[in-house]
Amino acid sequence: MLQQDYRNRPFVNEELWAGKLARALRAQPSLAEATGLNYIRIEQSPSWEAERFVEEEAARDDRDG
User: Fold this and answer.
1) Whether the Cβ atoms of residue 18 and residue 44 lie closer than 8 Å to each other
2) How many CA atoms lie within 13 A of 22 on its CB side?
3) Three-state SS for 28?
4) pTM given for the model
5) Where are the beta strands (DSSP E) in the chain?
């Protein structure tokens, strides 16, 4: 039932891109080996960077506003 619901729901491009990136990161052992990070931490880092970017843009808009 749950699988069928997911098959039928619409996806946004960003969600599809995130899935592609996650699969690529899991398939690329050299990234984990090079950084010493596990895959969960590697996958979380772009989210952290995106959050910081949004916060910085909001702060800049408030100053320029």
Assistant:
1) no
2) 11
3) coil
4) 0.38
5) none
Distance CA(21)–CA(27), nearest Å, equals 10
Tell me the pLDDT tens digit for each residue of 31-46: 777 778 887 887 787 7
d(CA 6, CA 49): 28
| 44 vs 25: CA distance, rounded Å | 11
Helix axes 39-64 and 13-27, enclosed angle (nearest 10): 140
Q: What is the rounded CA–CA span in Å between residue 32 and residue 13?
A: 26
End-to-end CA gap in the chain: 49
How many contiguous H segments (helices) and E segments (strands) does the chain have?
Answer: 4, 0
